[in-house]
């Protein structure tokens, strides 16, 4: 009992230092998601994974990290930006693949070093992404008073809330078991569909715990894990 009280007091006194691993992992999960999805999709299109990942990261920061008072907002770096990260990763990589497939690029003579040539080749995709996403973000902000991640979250909010209910969890488990019965990897299918919603809820749970370590009343029910 004495150890528990001592640990509680220690954690409260050094809360900021103890929260650093969370802030730089779950707190910025969307950055990893944006890069990872783009890199995986790039392999499907036989593109350079690193280039696609960096394009996706740039795209996400362009729409989800507005500059306010000289500082970048990180509000959508955690669970609230998951759906935006998924969409911009797919968009930027598919646009990159489209331009590459149609040879819309800057070509340099063969004498130019490969590293320099790749730097120029990526200019067109960068410009295409900036000239499409940035005006769209500005238009949505002007018309709706919210940026793209906020608009996306407002659209999927009912689905996120619905995924945090007992019927949704039971249905997920049922579908998972039916797929297993049919010889299909049920866990892989169900979690692939539901994980973005569960991760959004999990992020809310973690934020609530970080804000009030001794309170559990504001936590959502879905933990983000379904046993199939």
UniProtKB/TrEMBL annotation:
Which segments constitute the PTS EIIC type-3 domain? 1-228
Under InterPro entries, the record lists:
PTS_EIIC, PTS_EIIC_3, PTS_Sugar-EIIC/EIIB
> Alphabetically, which GO biological process terms does the record hold?
phosphoenolpyruvate-dependent sugar phosphotransferase system
Q: Give GO terms: molecular function aspect only.
A: protein-N(PI)-phosphohistidine-sugar phosphotransferase activity
Output this protein's name.
Answer: PTS system protein
* Compartments it resides in: Cell membrane
Principal cellular location given in the protein's record: membrane
Its Gene Ontology cellular component terms are: plasma membrane
State which residue ranges cross the membrane: 20-42, 49-67, 79-99, 120-148, 168-190
Species, as recorded: Klebsiella pneumoniae
Q: What is the membrane topology noted in the UniProt record heading this document?
A: Multi-pass membrane protein
Pfam families in the cross-refs: PTS_EIIC
Q: Gene name on record?
A: lacE_3
Instruction: Could you list this entry's UniProt keywords, alphabetically sorted.
Output: Cell membrane, Membrane, Sugar transport, Transmembrane, Transmembrane helix, Transport
Q: Does the keyword Transmembrane apply?
A: yes
